Structures are given as structure tokens and as C-alpha cells.
Amino acid sequence: MKKNNPHPPGAEHELIDLELNCFVCHGRLYAPLADARNVVATVNSGGTALLLCPYCGQGNVIRLRRPPDSVPSP
Q1: Cα–Cα distance between 12 and 73 in angstroms, integer?
Q2: Averaged over 57-64, what is the pLDDT?
Q3: Which domain of life is it from (predicted)?
Q4: Pick from 48, 50, 58: which is nearest to 27 by CA?
């Protein structure tokens, strides 16, 4: 029986679980601890970031989720 590894293949350094799943294969998305600040800064400044799934290679666009009351009304 194959054991489910919670970390992506080739994970040799500390990773942060982004609590997001790949849109295609539903694998969990992680970011290296060293890059976590860059990911957060990119999302905060531009509103989106691109994360590559370590399992299938699919690019996943992530966006900052804003509360409904922060969207300006027309």
C-alpha cells in the first residue's frame, strides 16, 4: 500500500502549507519558507500570484480574498 506523503516530491527544505489546493489535481500547494514573504508581498501589492503545483506542474493563480463589504458599489 502506498503511503500518502503530505509534502510535495523533492521537498528538501521547510515548507509553508498555503491551505490551497491545485485546481487540476487537487494536490496541496506549498511555498518554501524562504519565499513566503515574497508570495504574500506579491498578492498584497498586485492582488494575485502564480503558484506552480509540485505534483502536476499546473500554474494556479491565487487572489486576495476580500470581504463583500470592501467592494465598491456601482
Answers
A1: 47
A2: 91
A3: Bacteria
A4: 58
Please state, in angstroms and rounded to a whole number, the distance separating the CA atoms of residues 27 and 44: 24
Count the neighbouring beta carbons within 10 Å of the beta carbon of residue 55.
Answer: 15
Full-model pTM: 0.64
Phi and psi, residue 3, nearest 5°: -85, 135
C-alpha cell at 32: 518554501
- d(CA 55, CA 74) in angstroms, rounded, equals 41
d(CA 32, CA 15): 4
State the maximum Cα–Cα separation within the chain, in Å, rounded to a whole number.
56
**Rounded mean pLDDT, 9-38:** 84
Alpha-carbon gap, residue 32 to 12, rounded angstroms: 10
